[in-house]
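Protein modeling request. Please complete all fields; requests missing the sequence field cannot be processed.
Requester role: graduate student
Desired output: 3D structure, token encoding
Chains: 1
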Amino acid sequence: MARRPHVRTGTTGGCLFNGCLVLCVLLLVAVVGTWIRVATQPGRDEDEARAHLRETVEMYRERLARAAADGSLRDEEIGRLFPPMKPAEGLVDIRRQGKSTTAVVGLLGMGPARTFIFVSHTTVKGCYAFHVPPPAHEVPRVSVRQLPDEACTRSSRGGSPPNTLPR
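Delivered output (167 residues):
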């Protein structure tokens, strides 16, 4: 009969260090990494929504400049450019001073859609004033500035409600 080699037990290289401890550490790293990723996801979604809002503002600035390129910018044109986007207000107010026009608009930025049980979007609202200078011989340079959110609320609005301007 051949002798079988004797396997030593109870050494420091046993189950604890050769398998179970490594597995426990890897599991702990995976759980902590997943927890950090899930905990910071709303912030990343809001960042994407804010980036979308900046793109939206730029898109509307260009559209307003094209609409004003013919030298006249009527209230109806502005009203069609800025439809209401729930929960944002859309067109809030139009102010004219001499030949320059300022449109106060509530815009919306949307983040990526997330699906867990229900589909949800991260949204951010912003209130902006689009200033169109008097017409010149070229496409007007529309300037944009951000206003406090209170400037786009119903209570601060004077005159007609949004998108009910005379046509």
